[in-house]
Amino acid sequence: MADAAPFWESTGYGPVMVENVATVMAELEAEDFYLLSGLEQGMRFSKWVNREKLPDFADMTAEDVDYRLDRCEKRDLVERKTIQYEGFRLTFEGYDALALHTFAERETIEGVGAPLGVGKESDVYEVRSYKPLALKFHREGYTEFREVNREREYTADKEHVSWMYTARKAAEREHEALETLYPDVSVPQPIDHNRHAVVMERIDGVELGRAKLEDSQVVGVLDLVLSELATAYDAGFVHADVSEYNVFINSEGVTVFDWPQAVPTDHENADELLERDVENIVGYFQRKYPHHVESVDTQQLAIAVADGEFESVDEFAT
After folding, report:
1. Which residues participate in catalysis according to the annotation?
2. What is the pLDDT of residues 25-35, one digit of tens each?
3. Is 293 left (phi over 0), alpha (psi -120 to 50) or beta?
4. CA dist., res. 36 & res. 164, Å (int)
5. What does the angle CA 59 – CA 65 – CA 69 come to, to the nearest 5 degrees?
């Protein structure tokens, strides 16, 4: 990948990403990506890929595989373990590099900027393109795989699942939800996705949990969030994890983000999850603004949201 350097070095952005990935992208060559892709293929069949099988997976000679493994291991893109055989696997940095390489080839992004948010299940970075965008890497399954695997619907039917599969399915689920909901629901506009990464519109605003609403705004903002949930339900999705941490507020209204755990409305637990979402967001407003949002019949409120009959939370005060 000899022409990669101008792409990464012309951005004017600092060495961010998962620390070393952005800085090593300019050093990687096409054959390095063949090796990484070969490992990705091999990991579909085993957690650690036998070194002797890599020439077939990567379509390279054994000598080339050895050389590329050495280059990629020095850059923390792969890791090795000696078991009954010498095995290798991608690190999340290696998986990041593959996704970034694909986005670069598609000309989806031109450079990577500062982190916008780093959490247990995802890392989000600003990216340069034809307009400011956000790049979200899903991390589900890498550090707490067993817990995530039990909780996430999209891995529930898989007996043996890798962290790579879990993160990729999360990205697919989120992109699918955003594609369906945008623009009728106020969600980030989806731009592209590959593997465990989603490129989307960057939303400027304040996280609801950090906002201090004026007295006259409280009920109106809660109504806006519930209205978005109602429109999403009508479009076929339940968010299934609504909280004050995945709602942005700005002068134009509210934006609901983080949709990887969303379920279709025909899911057997959809109405239960919708009611939980309603309870969560109403409960937040009750805790932070107790004089403006008092006792609410959240069960009937959730039914109204699902039936498309919701107008204001005030109608459900008890």
Report:
1. 241
2. 989 999 999 99
3. beta
4. 13
5. 130
